[in-house]
Amino acid sequence: CKSTEDNPIKFNWKCCLVILKMLCVRAAPKLYGIVLDAGSSRTTVYLYQWPAEKENNTGVVTQTNMCQVKGPGISEMNKESWKNLMKCMGIITETVPLSQRNSTSIFLGATAGMRLLHQKNEAAANIILVALQEYLHSLPFDFQNASIISGQEEGLYGWITVNYLMGNFLEVRLRARTQGSLDLGGASTQIAFAAPDNTRGKDLVQVALYGYEYNIYTHSFLCYGKNEAEKKVLAELKSSNWSHINHPCYPAGYNITMKASDVFGSECTKSQAPAQNGPERNITFVGQSDPAMCKRLVRRIFDLNSCHGKENCSFEGVYQPPVTGDFMAYAGFYHTAKALNVSGSNSLEKFNATMRSVCSMDWKTVKVHLKSVCYSANYVHTLLVDGYKFNSDNWENLNFKKEVHIAWSLGYMLAQSNMIPAEAKLLKLPIPNIAFAALLFILSALIIITFMFLIITLVRFCY
Ligand SMILES: *[C@@H]1O[C@H](CO)[C@@H](O)[C@H](O)[C@H]1NC(C)=O
Ligand SMILES: *[C@@H]1O[C@H](CO)[C@@H](O)[C@H](O)[C@H]1NC(C)=O
Ligand SMILES: *[C@@H]1O[C@H](CO)[C@@H](O)[C@H](O)[C@H]1NC(C)=O
Ligand SMILES: *[C@@H]1O[C@H](CO)[C@@H](O)[C@H](O)[C@H]1NC(C)=O
Ligand SMILES: *[C@@H]1O[C@H](CO)[C@@H](O)[C@H](O)[C@H]1NC(C)=O
Ligand SMILES: *[C@@H]1O[C@H](CO)[C@@H](O)[C@H](O)[C@H]1NC(C)=O
Ligand SMILES: *[C@@H]1O[C@H](CO)[C@@H](O)[C@H](O)[C@H]1NC(C)=O
Ligand SMILES: *[C@@H]1O[C@H](CO)[C@@H](O)[C@H](O)[C@H]1NC(C)=O
Ligand SMILES: *[C@@H]1O[C@H](CO)[C@@H](O)[C@H](O)[C@H]1NC(C)=O
Questions:
Q1: CATH of the domain at 48
Q2: Is 345 among the domain residues?
Q3: Ligand 8 contact, 361 CB (< 6 A)
Q4: Mean of the pLDDT values across residues 302-306?
Q5: Spatial distance between the Cα atoms of 189 and 380, rounded to a whole number of angstroms
Q6: Residue 200: inside a domain, yes or no?
Q7: Ligand 8 centre and the CA of 388: distance in Å?
Q8: For residues 380 and 230, what is the distance between their CA atoms, to the nearest angstrom?
Q9: Which residues participate in catalysis according to the annotation?
């Protein structure tokens, strides 16, 4: 540690702290894991890190780096997006210390975009997966798997992530209250929450974590992600004049022309494609700013009739026990609430009122990137109220939260690498290495100071 030039005698504390920190980091080796979240509209690479000797503890895995791959999702991969993927993997590789690379697991999980492609063209989906497997295998990491994960897995991993990050598994002596997980992606949406123990049914899974068994209800609705649902809404609109279709959710003064294939080319809308029109045909949607009509239109894409007269049913005839407890609503849910200025926890009345006011605004008042905000507000409102059966009493249990680390990928990595043991762990007070070193440092400093003080007093006293 060199002393500073202007004051050669003064001890350089900053530099010493840096060295101390480096020694601590060296003393506590870190392990790493990589997950590629291959979503419908984009791929995100997450790098996680945890102290080696605490592998199975709760709350020790943190996200250290993240890279968003530019371009479309892997279901539409082209030369450009391959290049972007490689760029991201280069950045992530640089972050992992050389000596740790070959012990770093790497996984790729593809979600609804690839589920849809698999439905449409299984061979094409497999070709993409094999190419990705080969590429990831060629990297200097311990390649594990590249596959399409099921909607149920996606929901469950989201729930695990939320509760792991909230520290809800930390409580060892009592089974902690857990939070529900609401995820809204581009092509699918997931709900997952702990149902009462005696509830049994199709979408219930029992998971054992840190010594407790949880009864988790989880369901994923394919085609009910924000983007696919918007296509379903467009496909609902009928008109005799294709160059002028009124859209009540778009702002007045705004119109958009798109190819018929952009609306009807998806697996989610192809059954509604009009027989006599080619995919190249142009369709123009003309904004109306009509809140009441928009609400009715968005409601039409939900099949609520097949739940009619049934207890404990969301929509499309899907069984769902009544929602209980607090919920974390992230991804598309958060982005929608943010655009309405109602993120965090608010009342349903407030959501309603903001939604109505945004839906009445014309194109000049609504900001450019918010052209779809009225649609997405109505979509989120209908899904939560008419679908999942949230009401004005329990709406405040919803927390529309931006938590950069929330994604199913963390729960997926924890589960795939057996880092969440089923059995209980001994109750231990976790003292991180750095905190422990700091404590030791302060204690010894105190002792030295006291000692020196005694000597000085003694010397003063003697002379
Ligand atoms: C974590 O758990 C796995 C399986 O239960 C075990 O093999 C491994 O040794 C544990 N690691 C640590 C650091 O306790
Ligand atoms: C990982 O790499 C280190 C050197 O960087 C080497 O000593 C070790 O044997 C490798 N382990 C495996 C499993 O390949
Ligand atoms: C890869 O994942 C798929 C789907 O989750 C699973 O069926 C398969 O067994 C996994 N393969 C390996 C080698 O883990
Ligand atoms: C269709 O709408 C366009 C634009 O509003 C209009 O110019 C055209 O006359 C309409 N065609 C028919 C057949 O109504
Ligand atoms: C669409 O908007 C443009 C201006 O942005 C306008 O010139 C055109 O007439 C509009 N088309 C329809 C069908 O309203
Ligand atoms: C659709 O519109 C584009 C321009 O927006 C035009 O180039 C194309 O020819 C149109 N297609 C048809 C079938 O009218
Ligand atoms: C619906 O859920 C409630 C609360 O969990 C339960 O008491 C009731 O028996 C359920 N009804 C049916 C038909 O499953
Ligand atoms: C949200 O608040 C910001 C500033 O606080 C404002 O500019 C914006 O118009 C508001 N949006 C809505 C939809 O009320
Ligand atoms: C929200 O608005 C809808 C109509 O848009 C109405 O049916 C509902 O009762 C309202 N809910 C609350 C809590 O204000």
A1: 3.30.420.40
A2: no
A3: no
A4: 95
A5: 11
A6: no
A7: 28
A8: 11
A9: 154
The lowest-confidence range among 86-90, 333-337, 439-443 is 439-443
- Provide residues with CB under 6 Å of ligand 5: 244, 255, 284, 286
* Structural domain boundaries enclosing 16: 8-27+439-462
Work out how many domains the chain is built from and give that number.
2
The closest residue, in CA terms, to atom 7 on ligand 9 is: 352
Answer whether residue 14 is part of any domain. yes
pLDDT digits (tens, 9 = 90+) for 207-258: 988 888 899 999 999 999 999 999 999 999 988 888 899 999 999 999 999 9
Please state the pTM of the whole predicted model. Answer: 0.84
